[in-house]
C-alpha cells in the first residue's frame, strides 16, 4: 500500500505541476516563427514530461523494490553507530533510555516470570520436578562429594560450551531466538543443580585450612568477590537479548572491561573461586574451583575461536590490542586508554551489577536456607 501511495503522489504531482502553460515571451517573434516555435515547444514539453513521468514511475518502482535493501543498510548503519571512533568492536554497556520500548520490557518481565515458573515446576519442586532425581542419579556415581561436584560441573560445562560451540549451525537451522531458548532451557536447570549442591555440601569435605578468624580476611575476600562480578557478567549487558526479546547476537565488545581483559568472565570466575576457596578452606571448595576455572579456561580458547569465525579480521585487530591476562595489553602499550576511560563504567548496566551484587551478598542466608530445604 505504501508503494501505491507514493506512485499516486508522483502522478498527481506530474499532473498538477507538469503541464503548465508555457511563457508567452515568444510573441516577440514573427507569427510564422511563433507558430513553429509553439508547435516545437508543446511537442518537446509533452515529450519531456512523458519521460519525466516514466522516470519518476521507474524511481518509485525502484524504491519499492529496494525498500528491504535500505532497511538492511539502515540496520548496518545502526550497528556501526555502536562502534566508537577508531574501534572495530562495539561499545559495551551502552544503555540509552530514549531508545527503550516499554513493550519490550513488559515482554521481558513476562518471559522471566514464565521461565522461573517452568523451572520451579519442572526442576526445582521436589514433588513435580526432576532436579532431585538428577542429583540423586549423579550422587550414585561416587561417595565423594568432591567427585560429584566435579561431575556436575563437567555435565554443565559440556552442555553449556557444547551448545555455544554449535551456535552458528544451530541458529541457521532453527533461528536465533529458538536456539537461545534451547540454550537457556538446557543450561539453566543444570546450573541451578550445581549451585545448590555446592551450597548444601560446601562444608562436607576435608578441612585444609581455617582463616575465617584472621584479621581483615573477611573484608579482603568480600571486596574480591564484589570485584569479580564486574568481570563475570559483561555478556548480560543486553538483558533483552538474554531473554530473546531482542534477536540474540554474538557481540565483539571492545570497550569498558574488555580493555582490561578480553575474557572478563574467566577472570571474574577465577577471582570468585579464589575468594570462596580461601574462605571455606576445604576439599569441596577446591574441587569446585578446579572444575569452574578449567571450564572457563576452555571458554577462553572456544570464545576466541567463535569470534574469529564470526568477525575475521576485525577480531584479529581486537585481539592484537587486548589481552587475556588482566592489564597486560595496557602495560605493554598495545591498549591505549582514552582520557575519559572511567566514563565507560558509569553506565546503567554496571550500576545494576553493583546493586545485584550487594543484594546477593545480603541474600546469602536466604539462598542457603532455600537450598537446604530442597534436600539435594
From TrEMBL:
Q: Where in the cell is it found?
A: Membrane
Single GO biological process annotation from the record: carotene biosynthetic process
What PANTHER family does UniProt report for this protein, alphabetically?
15-CIS-ZETA-CAROTENE ISOMERASE, CHLOROPLASTIC (PTHR35988)
Which molecular-function annotations from GO does this UniProt entry contain?
9,15,9'-tri-cis-zeta-carotene isomerase activity
In terms of InterPro entries, this protein maps to:
NnrU_dom
Per the database record, which ranges form the NnrU domain?
148-367
Q: How is this protein named in the record?
A: NnrU domain-containing protein
Q: Where are the transmembrane segments?
A: 105-124, 144-166, 178-199, 219-240, 345-364
Q: Which organism was this protein described from?
A: Psophocarpus tetragonolobus
Cellular compartments per GO CC: chloroplast; membrane
What are the record keywords, sorted? Membrane, Transmembrane, Transmembrane helix
- What is the membrane topology listed in the Swiss-Prot or TrEMBL record? Multi-pass membrane protein
